[in-house]
Amino acid sequence: MAELSTHDPLAGIPIDRVPPSSHYGRPGTPGATARLVEGLALATLVARKGQAPALGRTLAATFGVPVADAPRLSGTAPSFIGMGPGRWIALAEDAALATRLREAAGSLAAVTEQSDGYIVLDLAGPKVEWLLAKGALIDLDTSVFREGDVATTVLAHIGVTLWRTGPESFRLLVLRSYLAAFCRFLVASGAEFGLRLDVRG
Fold it and tell me: Residue 194 is part of a domain; what is its CATH number?
């Protein structure tokens, strides 16, 4: 078997392990940072047939924010991320989130607790678009993918949902079982610019 290059930022890290929190690649100020976000509850809402408009009105009345039935971010506490027609994932620092959503939605939607199923990552920095472009199948330039826009897509063969949170920042949802593989993609793609990875839980 060929030896790994000494320049390989993943050298010596088992393929099934999450790379440790560290600075990878180019020294100095990192061009991108990736941080694991802890303490968020997640739940999916899927409107029952024909009930998406009524569900949107109910959520807006309950949580005080219009909820777009579109690939857009709505609200902050909780945040509703449009993942498809009549389908959202909600995030909040609220352990009772799924219960609150079930109470609000009633018979209008199916609500499923997802806090253990996904991890949330914040990516930021002047080179973050360049990093993501190495694995993305969509155009993430600010001219077409604006703040609050959401996409459910594939990055480096891994399914993700991501949305732009600022001119140089994104938030991503990744299935927890893919955390090691996705972080390896981030390290391999971000080392060119310098990547600060923070996955301490």
Answer: 3.30.1360.120
- DSSP bridge pairs for 160: 153, 174
The answer, as to whether pTM is greater than 0.70, is yes
Which residue shows structure tokens 């793609």?
189
Co-location of 194 and 124 in the same domain: yes
pLDDT of residue 109: 97
Residue 2 lies in a domain: no
**Alpha helix (H) residue ranges in 71-200:** 97-105, 128-133, 179-190
Strand order, beta sheet including 22-24: 22-24, 195-198, 32-37, 118-124, 169-175, 158-166, 150-155
pLDDT digits 0-9 by tens, 52-110: 999 999 999 999 989 999 999 999 889 999 999 999 999 999 999 999 999 999 999 99
User: What's the CA gap between 79 and 83, in Å, rounded?
Assistant: 12
